């Protein structure tokens, strides 16, 4: 009798037939794959540390163009401690690894929850995952584009008598925080559409709440924008308001 060199792939058991130990084993396997993807992506981000740092430093260079009397660029970042360079590289590796590995991480999450979904629900998973990735990246891009205006606003608040010398860790913490915050908040329509599909809320109910929703979105944008400048707050609030009404329209289409 011939023995196959490679074992046949086992069919995934029904979630109703899986024991607690099997559920935990499946979770552990997905976590291992996600962790390995993050580790590989973090190493890749470390290799491209220089271009990534230059890319994130570009908004600062737009605010302070030219060179100083010493012939150095006006947008130089200055470390103030011996461990700042190491912590900066670790922070860049973690952020870059998370962004690069996000498709694999989302895929592992999808593979873990798929057995518990009905066939009618599985068709929504891929559009939701793709929409989440696109909206997150769109939010990061908008934060990157408005960040020079945030720096100019913060510089003007301090006054012309102050000389701007930025620590790279503090500078990158601010720009990365803004990018992550914008990216996460841009997932707002995905959450609303999911709630509509789950019948937690209806499009008609969301439409009746639109005045309070606009006020709440504006307050959230004003409170949680790290730079606190008006342009960044508008760049966060206006898309969220548009997404709110767009999610109502999508909910009505799905309901039909």
Low-confidence stretches: 1-9
The largest sheet is: none
Q: What does the overall shape look like? A: flat
User: Total number of β-strand segments?
Assistant: 0
Our Rg estimate from Cα atoms comes to: 23 Å
Fraction of residues in helices? over 70%
Structural class: mainly alpha
Helix and strand element order: HHHHHHHHHH
Strand content: under 5%
Distance between the termini: 56 Å
Our count of helices gives 10
Q: Give the overall pLDDT as a whole number.
A: 80
Commentary on this structure:
The protein has 256 residues and is an all-alpha fold. It has a domain at 20-186. It has helices at 20-47, 49-63, 84-113, 119-122, 125-158, 168-185, 188-197, 203-208, 210-224, 230-255. It is flat and about 60 Å long. The N and C termini lie far apart (56 Å). The relative contact order is 0.10. The model is unreliable at 1-9 (pLDDT under 50).
């Amino acid at each position: 009798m011939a023995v196959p060199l490679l074992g046949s792939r086992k069919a995934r058991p029904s979630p109703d037939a899986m024991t607690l130990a099997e559920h935990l084993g499946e979770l552990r396997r997905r976590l291992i794959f996600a962790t390995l993807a993050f580790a590989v992506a973090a190493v890749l981000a470390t290799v491209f540390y220089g271009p990534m740092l230059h890319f994130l430093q570009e908004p600062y260079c737009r605010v302070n163009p030219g060179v100083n009397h010493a012939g150095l660029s006006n947008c130089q970042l200055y470390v103030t401690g011996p461990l700042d360079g190491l912590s900066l590289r670790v922070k860049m590796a973690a952020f870059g690894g998370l962004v690069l590995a996000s498709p694999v991480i989302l895929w592992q999450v999808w593979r873990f929850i798929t057995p518990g979904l009905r066939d009618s629900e599985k068709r929504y998973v891929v559009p939701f995952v793709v929409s989440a990735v696109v909206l997150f990246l769109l939010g990061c891009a908008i934060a990157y584009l408005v960040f020079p205006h945030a720096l100019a606003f913060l510089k003007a608040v301090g006054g012309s008598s102050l000389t701007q010398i930025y620590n790279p860790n503090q500078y990158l913490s601010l720009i990365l925080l803004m990018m992550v915050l914008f990216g996460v908040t841009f997932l707002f329509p995905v959450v609303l559409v999911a709630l509509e599909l789950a019948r937690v809320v209806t499009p008609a109910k969301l439409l009746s709440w639109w005045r309070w929703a606009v006020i709440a979105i504006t307050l959230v944008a004003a409170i949680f924008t790290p730079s606190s400048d008006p342009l960044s707050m508008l760049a966060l609030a206006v898309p969220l308001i548009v997404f709110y009404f767009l999610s109502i329209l999508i909910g009505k289409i799905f309901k039909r």
